[in-house]
Amino acid sequence: MAMDNLANAFYDELRDVFSAEKQLVDALPKMAKKASSAELKEALQSHLEETKQQVARVEAAFEETGKAARAKTCEAMKGLIEEAKEVLEEQADDETRDALIIACAQKVEHYEIATYGTLCRWAELLGYSQAEKLLKQNIQEEEAADSKLSTVAETVNKKALQHT
Ligand code: FE
Ligand code: FE
Ligand code: ZN
Ligand code: FE
Question: Structural domains in the chain?
Fold first, then answer.
């Protein structure tokens, strides 16, 4: 597909985020499973449920493009998840691993926020009002997930700091 107009760019980026969210549906349970803090586990599990909804919203956002809802591998998310997997396999004490899991999870959230920021603006410019509404719901959930992780990190980091 030629990237000769913003509508095509929007479609391409939507395919990318569709892939990114689907990858996270597989990755978040693995991160939650390895988390020791109950608070962190809960934050990751509840974001998993939100992520499943986000996949459905992105799928619905394709409607106004008039094109098929088809994912295109997001290589950036693949890389972020790869790094998270390395952290999960590392020898670590529970609290330090939790701190590292949060670091990985927040990189993911920030990446998603950046993508949805662009997509929301493009949807607005293209007059895709339904897509704009759906993508705004997603970005709000990502922002809330990110700030919840910051809160959980307060406790987790303190505990990790006690390990010498
Ligand atoms: Fe997401
Ligand atoms: Fe991407
Ligand atoms: Zn990508
Ligand atoms: Fe997210």
Answer: 6-65+73-161 (1.20.1260.10)
